[in-house]
Amino acid sequence: MPHRATVIFAHGMGQSNATWQMAFAKALAPQFPSVQWLLPQAPLRRVSINQGMLRPSWFDIWRLPPHPSEYDEQAITESISAIEDLILNQIHSGIEAKRIFLMGFSQGAALSLCVGLTTLNELGGIISMSGWLPPAYRSHITLGPSFPILWCHGTDDREIPISYGRDAVEFIKALPGSDGSRGNGVVIRTYSGLKHAINDAELADIAAFLGAQLQS
Prior knowledge:
CATH superfamily: Alpha/Beta hydrolase fold, catalytic domain
EC number: 3.1.2.22
Helix content: 25-40%
Distance between the termini: 20 Å
Mean pLDDT: 94
Strand order of the largest sheet: 2-1-5-6-7-8
CATH topology: Rossmann fold
CATH class: Alpha Beta
Pfam families: Abhydrolase_2
Number of strands: 8
Largest sheet: 6 strands, parallel
Keywords: Fatty acid metabolism, Hydrolase, Lipid metabolism, Serine esterase
Organism: Coprinellus micaceus
CATH architecture: 3-Layer(aba) Sandwich
């Protein structure tokens, strides 16, 4: 079946896209046969929190939870460009921007938010899983999104605490044009006892979100 929508998923630091590919193939892809799942692989970068070891990473991280002042500008810019290229490729292939969704876990969620909240393309939505919005990047964001955002976070996450999620959600809600009147609200879903991981309830919420947006 030719695809009529696209989900671009960015994995977390140190992870492989193949692991997520298997998870989505089992949990989500069968429910959305017309959706293409693009899972780019982050390049190997030296990661400060891992004593400079080379690991798959969209940008450098010095500590966990990330300090608000952390900002690897060059790598973030390069990674944003990589995701933007994927978006443009999909648009050029005939997929409407509003049927393209950005999704990510942890560092990949942070990247997806940086892209989605500054892109000139009116996307279908963003799904943030255990993510955060780097405070040092927020000056680049001047308007609220024209699309909905689903924010999923475990209550017992110690690597990216839920307070980071709530802070980002409040920032987005305070942006001009983020009143939700255009179907562009931010919905936060929390999962009791969940650490820095995903569970079946979260996947069900993601499926419901995607289903609702694809029908609209």
